[in-house]
Amino acid sequence: VQLQASGGGLVQAGGSLRLSCAASGGTSSSYDMAWFRRAPGKEREFVASSSWSGRSTFYTDSVKGRFTISRDNAKNTLYLQMNSLNSVDTAVYYCAASMASYKPLSTVQYDYWGQGTQVTVSS
Fold first, then answer.
1. N or C: which end of the chain has fewer CB within 10 A?
2. How confident is the model over 44-89, as pLDDT tens digits?
């Protein structure tokens, strides 16, 4: 499966953005999917994940209540709605996929990665 992330940009602190990740070469409903990010000078970190059906989601603590992961399997697309953005959210955001395993989302290892989309939050 190939993944294409989009939707990044420059936004003021407190603003919102919605990222999209289009999957091709496979059916998104066959995959657990996730968002990761890499801030300048830092390691890549997990942000949020969704089971193949979308019924289960998992978030890192720092984005709970601000970010929402969702998916539209009919469109083979994963989304990340980001609200109340602040400067610590500035990063390159990546989407990732793993064959649906029915394991707890916190344990999923991702095999497929898209290119990143830059999110910059100005204070």
1. C
2. 999 999 999 999 999 999 999 999 999 999 999 999 999 999 999 9
User: What are the C-alpha distances in Å from 110 to residues 4, 33, 60, 85?
Assistant: 15, 8, 16, 26
What's the chain look like in SS3?
A: CEEEEECCEEEECCCCEEEEEEEECCCHHHEEEEEEEECCCCCEEEEEEECCCCCCEEECHHHCCCEEEEEECCCCEEEEEECCCCHHHCEEEEEEEEECCCCCHHHCCCCEECECEEEEEEC
